[in-house]
Design brief:
single chain, about 375 residues, alpha+beta, 13 helices
Length: about 375
């Protein structure tokens, strides 16, 4: 009994599939027309989409993991700098994208001079001078239509902060906000935790500009990482340099006092003269000893700053791209054609049930 029921169920499924296939085949002209229409739209989108080029740089940050000497740690505590955990603690590459997101970094990118690529203006002016192409408009209202619709109902005004005078908090204008959003689209950073390398990618409509911006972004990113890495030891260096200048002044002052006293009392040989001369010589010796000790500490701190400075090994240097990265015209055409096929067949399958539901609602 169970086998017979299973057999009848399979026959019903086969009959349903055959019926659906006949229904689709009966309206094959409709399927062909809709699919062909979508294919034409996909071809237009593929042809008018703006051509972009991408280039990337792959590098590995290398730095020392040695802790600061105990003498420097105690000296740093006097300057309010904590080196107890080692002044050369690693900066996680996971934080690198946060540097790219910062307004300070993006402003530096916008100020990049494009003269080496043959364009006598900054990257900011180059972006503002670029007109919206027909391809970008079509893409906005086709491929990116869902995101475009969502943006109509989202309010970005709260993210725009007008600049204010004499304000320490970083503020951005509406124009900068738009430029920053553009940079988020054309500059990306990928981190490989397993192999411990970082890949910086830049996309632009001009291959030379893509390469130039990628190279400059690589330099800016490495500079910012170095600043963060040596921040503590740099603060200690400033503190020791200030103490160095103070002790040098104290030593020169004691030396001048001793020389002046000897010059004024060249022919005097009394006990009081001898006592005062001894005190001045002792003051000078103490000042000289302290100055020499601070000089040694200064050299140690300079070596520590040099040790803390990371060195970036370039695995894949930036090159001017010769092949476009987008649009992938063949893929776009296939996607649109497949979309037309699915929509046309889906319409045929739901047409009659939909009409029945509408009829039942009206009745």
């Amino acid at each position: 009994m169970t086998e017979q029921h299973h057999k009848d169920h399979l026959e019903e499924d086969q009959i349903d599939l055959i019926a659906l296939a006949k229904k689709i085949w009966g309206k094959r002209k409709h399927v062909i027309r809709v699919t062909l229409l979508f294919a034409i739209v996909g071809l237009v989108v593929a042809l008018v989409s703006p051509v972009t080029y991408s280039t990337s740089s792959v590098f590995i940050p290398n730095s020392s993991s040695d802790k600061a000497p105990s003498g420097l740690s105690s000296l740093a505590s006097l300057a309010g700098v904590d080196l107890s955990g080692g002044s050369s603690s690693e900066i996680s590459p996971v934080l690198y994208p946060k540097i790219l997101e910062g307004a300070h970094f993006k402003r530096q990118v916008l100020d990049i001079d494009l003269s080496p690529s043959g364009i006598s203006e900054t990257f900011k002016n180059y972006i503002l001078d670029q007109p919206d192409s027909a391809g970008s408009v079509i893409k906005k209202y086709t491929v990116e239509l869902p995101g475009t619709i969502i943006s109509w109902f989202s309010d970005d005004s709260e993210n725009i902060i007008e600049p204010a005078e004499n304000e320490e908090i970083i503020t951005i204008s509406e124009e900068e906000y738009g430029l920053f959003k553009y940079l988020d689209e054309v500059i990306s950073l990928a981190i490989n935790d397993k192999e411990r390398y970082i890949e910086l990618t830049v996309t632009s409509g001009d291959p030379k500009i893509a390469a130039l911006i990628a190279k400059e972004c690589e330099k800016l990113l490495q500079t910012e990482v170095i600043k963060l890495k040596i921040k503590q030891s740099t603060e200690l260096l400033k503190y020791v340099e200030a103490r160095y200048e103070e002790k040098k002044t104290d030593m020169y002052t004691a030396q001048n006092r001793l020389a002046s006293f000897k010059d004024r009392n060249f022919s005097i040989s009394s006990s009081s003269f001898g006592n005062q001369l001894t005190r001045l010589e002792q003051d000078y010796q103490i000042a000289s000893t302290v100055f020499q000790e601070v000089s040694k500490q200064l050299e140690q701190v300079k070596l520590q700053v040099s040790k803390d400075t990371p060195v970036f090994s370039i695995i894949k240097p930036v090159v001017v791209p010769t092949e476009r990265s987008t649009p992938k015209r063949g893929l776009i055409l296939v996607i649109w054609t497949f979309l037309g096929l699915v929509i046309s067949i889906g319409y045929i399958l739901v047409e009659e049930p939909f009409k029945e539901i509408i009829g039942q609602i009206k009745s």
